[in-house]
Amino acid sequence: MPLEPRESDLPRIRGALRFYKIASVITGVMLLLLCVEMIIKYGLGYELELAGPYGFLALVPTDTAVAINLSTGILIAHGWFYVVYLFSDFRLWSLMRWPFWKFLLIATGGIVPLLSFFLEARIGREVTAYLDRRTSASTQKVEAPTA
C-alpha cells in the first residue's frame, strides 16, 4: 500500500509545489540556454562575450574572450539552478511520500531539454488534484451530520 502524505503536511505541500514549479521553469530555461550555447560553442566555434571590445554582447572565437565569458556563466548558472531544482524536487517528493523512482524521474527534468516543462505541468496537475481530493474529503467529514 503506498504511503499517503500526512494531514499536517498538506498546507506545506502547496508551498512546495509552488517552489517546484518556479524552479522547474527556471531550470528548463537555463537548460535551453545551455543547449544553444553548446551548439554555438562546439558547432560553430564561438562563445558569447559580454561587455567586451566588440560591443555589449558579441560572438567571439572560442577561447578568445577578454571580457565576461557569458558561455561559462550560463554553464555555471544552470548548474546552480539545477541544485535548487533538485532541492525543490526532494522537498515535494518527501512531503508527498512518493516512491524513489518518482524522485529520479522528476530529477531528469533538469538534464533532458524540455522535459522540465512537461513534468512541471504533469506533476502540478497531479498534486493539485490530490490536494483537492483530500480537501473535499476532509470537508465532507466535517459537514457530515451526526446521529
UniProtKB/TrEMBL annotation:
Protein location: Cell membrane
GO CC annotations, alphabetized: plasma membrane
Broad class of where this protein is predominantly found: membrane
Domain of life of the organism encoding this protein: Bacteria
Recorded topology in the membrane: Multi-pass membrane protein
Domain DUF3817 intervals: 17-123
Membrane-spanning parts: 20-44, 64-88, 100-119
Keywords: Cell membrane, Membrane, Transmembrane, Transmembrane helix
PANTHER family: MEMBRANE PROTEIN, MEMBRANE PROTEIN-RELATED
NCBIfam families reported for this sequence: integ_memb_HG (TIGR03954)
Name listed for the protein in its UniProt record: DUF3817 domain-containing protein
Pfam family, one: DUF3817
Source species taxonomy: Bacteria, Bacillati, Actinomycetota, Actinomycetes, Micrococcales
Organism the protein comes from: Labedella endophytica
